[in-house]
Automatic annotation (TrEMBL):
Pfam families: Sigma70_r2, Sigma70_r4_2. Residues 111-161 form the RNA polymerase sigma factor 70 region 4 type domain. It comes from Paracoccus fistulariae. Residues 35-84 form the RNA polymerase sigma-70 region domain. It comes from the Bacteria. This is Sigma-70 family RNA polymerase sigma factor. Keywords: DNA-binding, Sigma factor, Transcription, Transcription regulation. PANTHER family: ECF RNA POLYMERASE SIGMA FACTOR SIGD, RNA POLYMERASE ECF-TYPE SIGMA FACTO. Belongs to the sigma-70 factor family. ECF subfamily.
Amino acid sequence: MTRANQGDGQAFHCFLTEVTPPLRSLIRARGRGLPPDLHEDVLQEVLLAIHLKRGSWDGVSPIRPWLYAVARHKVVDAFRKRGRQIHLPIDDVAEMLEAEPGPMPLAARDADRLLGMIDDRSAALVRAVRIEGQSTEDAAEELGVSPGAARVALHRAMKRLSELAQRMK
């Protein structure tokens, strides 16, 4: 690399040829969450970055940490470009997905407990509108009250539930 930085093109070609296999291995290891076809793209970006940034290597420090830092940054960039999407084949885990429902989550148990502390009509209204996602009009019709009365009752029920939750803390 020292000779390459002094303008020796043949030395730079030899250098890149020698560092490509270990960089490829590093990219495969660090980029396990990336699709395998992206590994070669990342390698090309690393090689280009080495070419463009080779003047930043001081010539005294070991070259390997500098190379690995460049590769590591390019792998991170590839993950960022890709976003948070992870694609895994579902066939390998399909039988594990069909699990029986477990115990009720704590939040649901707390909600049931709090709803048991208010009157039945208000609790039914809160369940229908806030938990199940029905419209206030549909819930009002099911409970046999006007939509306006349902909105007022829902507001009062939510206020009462909030007070009860504060007391339970």
